[in-house]
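no rush on this but wanted to send it before i forget. what follows is a protein written twice so to speak, once as letters and once as structure tokens for the fold. mainly i need to know what kind of three dimensional shape the backbone takes. thanks a lot i owe you, the record is right below.
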Amino acid sequence: MACGSTNTIVRLMAGTFVFALVFGAFASAQGRMPPIPVDKLTPAQKKAVDEYKKARGGEPGGPWAVLTRSPELMARTLMLSDHLRFNSSLPPRLSEFVILMTAREWGQNYEWNAHHPLAVKGGLNPEVAKAVAEGRRPVQMEEDEASLYDLIQELLHNRTVSDSTYARAVSKFGEQAVVDAVSISGYYTMVAMLLNTARTPLGPGVPAPLPAFP
């Protein structure tokens, strides 16, 4: 093949690659399921949005904008979310810790960005959160945090929990708190999956807080 033809093909391939990067970034920045304009809502969607506003205030964004597409699911999810976030047997320091571990597992920047400040405000050591973000086992955990870390990490990575880890968690927290912790991780796994599918973006100019893993 002539050198000129080879160079032309290389330039075309490079152009295609650049276009793919630009288009991919644009699609990601826009998101696949942005909030539905008010005049486009179905009656069922409008009812679900109104219930959300009454419960939380403000317009439904993030995962709630995605869930608007399934209004009955959105209404039922709101009840579950309210219980797990505000009425679980775990204090905010620990419940938000579970959420951060789950967000890290799914590489979910929106979820992490929303809950990192809440975790720190709830009393989680920022160095512990930093280690989780970087994929490291935190070295400055409290005893209850270490027990919870092992429980959730084993479940996320191994899809099961060893007898020793389970016994330690039940001894430390009791069965209800173990059920609550696992349910929080399960719920925020669903949220992360929705956000990843919808490619829900961070706010304008907000850098992605989680480093990408291979």
